[in-house]
Automatic annotation (TrEMBL):
Residues 29-712 form the Glycosyl hydrolase family 13 catalytic domain. The gene is treY. This is Malto-oligosyltrehalose synthase. One of its GO terms (biological process) is trehalose biosynthetic process. Gene3D superfamilies: Glycosidases (3.20.20.80), Maltooligosyl trehalose synthase, domain 4 (1.10.10.470). It comes from Kitasatospora sp. CMC57. SUPFAM superfamilies: (Trans)glycosidases (SSF51445). Signal peptide: none annotated. GO terms for molecular function: (1,4)-alpha-D-glucan 1-alpha-D-glucosylmutase activity.
Length: 805
């Protein structure tokens, strides 16, 4: 084996015991990752989890905007740097997991950076790459000499075309518009600009027409990310060739699949990937809603962990207190009675005729019209009726999308979900609803158009759910921000310990190697930021009073929901620099789309908000009160942080540690959470003993993380078994065994525990034997153990039974 060609022995690489997510970017390249390998090996992880590796748009800080599937990003160091990283990782018995982006590519600036797209723009539907992209050529009239062929809408002009004609110039065979560059159809370079534009296979248009007229599928509502048709075998092979070659060479050992819900056939994609890799470790970024479970027939190891994140946070959240807090929020802000209503409203806005996803709904309507035209028995369903029914289906669908495979019986879950979503359709649209139901479930026979409808409905539904709930409703309902996380379910705050145990038992039986997560590059608030906010559910009346007092002290606020957002943001990330706070608030209110938005900003409102936030941070009477409150809840936030970390690191699954998360991390939504981390300093602190500074959360969490990861790597994570506590504070304890030798014990609802008198006579039944708490060094004998003694100085314990002689 050479450093250029790492090739582990066949069969040497099993599933991860844990992984560590690194956000690669120009400020943290593959070279930096290689230098971090000794530290990450010492920390105890088994795999490095790398953000996207392929060539992305210039300056990309995330890598999800691929421009070239044929090479590793030169901005990150290129393939030589990746191979050097793999070789260094292998020397330390680590392996690599790569993030794969199969759903879309960038529409970059300049456009020629995406060569397949460049050729499509030049050659139109006859391009050798035309089948790569999910384009509806029928939705736009083509060039004047071939109107029936269609063309691609490019919504990037700053104004209507007539006002922008003077900004176009021709250089050789290239059309330029400011920093944009477009290829010219052969033979058109010498024409006057207006005639030249009329003869291209693309139509430059005002950016505002995209929502209603766009004729290519995109990532959610991002016009700069055009969808790729990986369901076509040739496209799959071309877009995955480099990553598959690196896997075959032993450089990459596993894959994280971004946004599988955007794919026409997620299961089919995973089967093709499994076949191509021989069953490599693969997890999917599938967002599961409520009680939804990952389809059992997907050939993968599981999800990226948002489902477990929700359970971890849930079991540490006071259900009754959260409900009281939401009641106080409703009274103060006059919001809907249920955050689910905000979700429905957010979805409805997207699917409205003037909504951001109107073009996607229109494409579905055209498909239904074509199906009905081809079959007289299905005719006489007016387009407005079809549109109304589809909008209701997409608005009310209870999970992200159905998984209906043409030619197979629809899953029972999809049948029930479609029925539930159509339950509110008016009676006069009943026949059309029945038509749409049959098409959605694949029950009206097969044809290319019907098969396409099934796939496209799922793709559109997932975009509506993500944008309507995660990226709209979760920025509107600000009662308790720790609930508003990716995959969250704020309508049902809190989780009983028995439910958490049930979840862990389910994972252990069905998805033992699924990833679990606490923080990711997409979480709106890091785990430790949420740990602070979770305390608020235990003191709802006190927190509501503080909110009211701070709002009064700060002066007239732009609106009450935003005041709740502001104060919780300060608590979550305190102390906060003014510019950082302003950036987060502006993103939040624009995503909420109530008073302002990205596409229709209200400068007056935004100026008021910025002034209000900056004045609050400059208020000499207010800042000490905020700081005092944060200090007063610090012991309980510490307990929540350590409890969440220990649950994450010892429950069934593969814990994925987000960069820097081994110490307290108080980051907010991207780009705040994607900044490079000083791993060199963490390496130095890893050698420190937490006993040197008792109560130092940074050292405690780093020590806990390293201890738990090393235990996992040594093979100590055995079968899952809940343990039961008895006594007056039993509900504040959560404990479980992993096999015969390890036990995890955590405190839940610490504020309530403290104010109810502590553990008192609460006891935990430990298996017989001598145990050592790996976090404190304390030894204890099995049997009925006093929890007050076990957790005397620490809110959590990680017990290992001594070997029998």
């Amino acid at each position: 084996m050479t450093s250029e060609q790492p090739r582990p022995a066949a069969g040497a690489v099993g599933p991860p015991t844990s992984s560590y997510r690194l956000q690669l970017q120009p400020a943290f390249t593959l070279h930096d990752a290689r230098r971090a390998v000794p530290y990450l090996a010492a920390l105890g992880v088994s795999h490095l989890h790398l953000s996207p590796l392929l060539e992305a748009a210039p300056g990309s800080t995330h890598g999800y905007d691929t421009v070239d599937h044929g090479r590793i990003s030169e901005q990150l160091g290129g393939e030589p740097a990746l191979r050097e990283l793999a070789a260094e990782a292998h020397r330390h018995q680590l392996r690599l997991i790569a993030d794969v982006v199969p759903n879309h590519m960038a529409v970059p600036v300049p456009e020629q950076l995406n060569q397949p797209l460049w050729e499509v723009l030049r050659d139109g539907p006859d391009s050798r790459f035309a089948h790569w992209f999910d384009i509806d050529w029928t939705a736009q009239p083509g060039p004047v000499d071939a109107p029936e062929r269609g063309r691609l809408l490019l919504p990037l002009l700053g104004d209507r075309l007539g006002a922008e004609l003077g900004q176009f110039t021709v250089e050789g065979e290239t059309l330029r518009y400011f920093e944009h560059a477009f290829p010219l159809r052969p033979g058109t370079a010498g024409l006057p600009i207006a005639e030249l534009l009329s003869r291209q296979w693309y139509r430059p248009a005002w950016w505002r027409v995209a929502d209603g007229e766009l004729n290519y599928r995109r990532f959610f509502t991002v016009n700069q990310l055009i969808a790729v048709r990986v369901e076509v075998p040739e496209v799959f092979e071309a877009t995955h060739r480099t990553l598959l070659r690196l896997h075959a060479d032993g450089v990459l050992d596993g894959f994280r699949i971004d946004h599988p819900d955007g794919l026409a056939d997620p299961r089919g994609y995973l089967r093709r990937l499994a076949e191509a890799t021989g069953g490599a470790y693969t997890v999917v970024e599938k967002i599961l809603t409520g009680p939804e479970l990952l389809p059992a027939d997907w050939p993968c190891a599981g999800t990226t962990g948002y489902d477990s994140l929700r359970r971890i946070d849930g079991v540490l959240t006071d259900h009754a207190g959260a409900e009281r807090l939401m009641h106080a929020y409703r009274l103060d802000c006059g919001t809907p009675a249920d955050p689910a209503e905000e979700g429905r409203r957010g979805r409805a806005e997207l699917t409205a005729p003037d909504g951001e996803l109107a073009a996607e709904v229109a494409r579905l309507v055209r498909l239904v019209e074509g199906i009905c035209s081809a079959e007289p028995a299905l005719s006489d369903h007016p387009a407005p009726a079809v549109r109304a029914v589809l909008a209701e289906l997409l608005t009310a669908y209870p999970v992200y999308r159905p998984y209906v495979v043409p030619g197979e019986p629809a899953p029972a879950e999809a049948v029930a979900d479609v029925a539930a979503a159509l339950a509110r359709v008016p009676a006069e649209l009943g026949a059309t609803a029945e038509l749409v139901r049959g098409l959605a479930l694949g029950q009206l026979g097969r044809s290319p158009a019907k098969d396409e409808f099934c796939a496209r409905l799922g793709q559109t539904a997932s975009a509506v759910a993500a944008k309507g709930v995660e990226d709209t409703a979760f920025y509107r309902f600000n009662a308790l921000l720790s609930l508003n996380e990716v995959g969250g379910f704020p309508s049902r705050p809190g989780l009983r310990p028995a439910e958490f145990h049930d979840w862990c038992g389910y994972l252990a039986e069905h998805w033992p190697h699924t990833m679990t997560a606490l923080s990711t590059h997409d979480t709106k608030r890091s785990a430790d930021a949420r740990a602070r906010l979770t305390v608020l559910a235990e003191l709802p009346e006190r927190w509501a009073a503080e909110c009211a007092a701070w709002t009064t002290a700060a002066g007239p606020c732009p609106d009450r929901p935003t005041a709740w957002l502001l104060w919780q943001t300060l608590i979550a990330a305190w102390p906060v620099e003014p510019d950082r706070l302003v950036g987060i608030l502006l993103k939040s209110v624009r995503e909420a789309k109530r008073a302002t938005s990205w596409t229709t900003p209200d400068e007056h409102y935004e100026r008021r908000l910025v002034e209000y936030a900056r004045a609050a941070l400059a208020n000499p009477g207010l800042c000490p009160r905020i700081d005092g409150f944060v200090q007063s809840i610090a012991p309980y936030a510490r307990s929540n942080s350590l409890a969440a970390a220990l649950l994450h690191l010892t429950m069934p699954g593969v814990p994925d540690v987000f960069q820097g998360g081994e110490e307290p991390l108080y980051t907010l939504v991207d780009p705040d959470n994607r900044a490079p981390v000083d791993l060199g300093s963490l390496a130095v602190r890893l050698t420190d003993s937490p006993a040197d500074r008792p109560g130092d959360l940074a050292r405690e969490k780093l020590h806990l993380t390293a201890t738990a990861l090393r235990l996992r790597r040594s093979g100590e994570a055995g079968p899952y078994r809940p343990l039961t506590a008895t006594g007056p504070a039993a509900t504040h304890l959560l404990a479980f065994a992993r096999g015969e030798r390890t036990v995890s014990v955590v405190t839940r609802l610490p504020y309530g525990l403290d104010h109810a008198g502590g553990w008192r006579d609460t006891a935990l039944g430990l298996p017989v034997g001598s145990w050592t708490d790996q976090l404190t060094g304390h030894r204890i004998e099995g049997g009925e153990v006093s929890v007050g003694e076990l957790l005397e100085d620490h809110p959590v314990a990680l017990l290992v039974r001594e070997s029998q002689s």
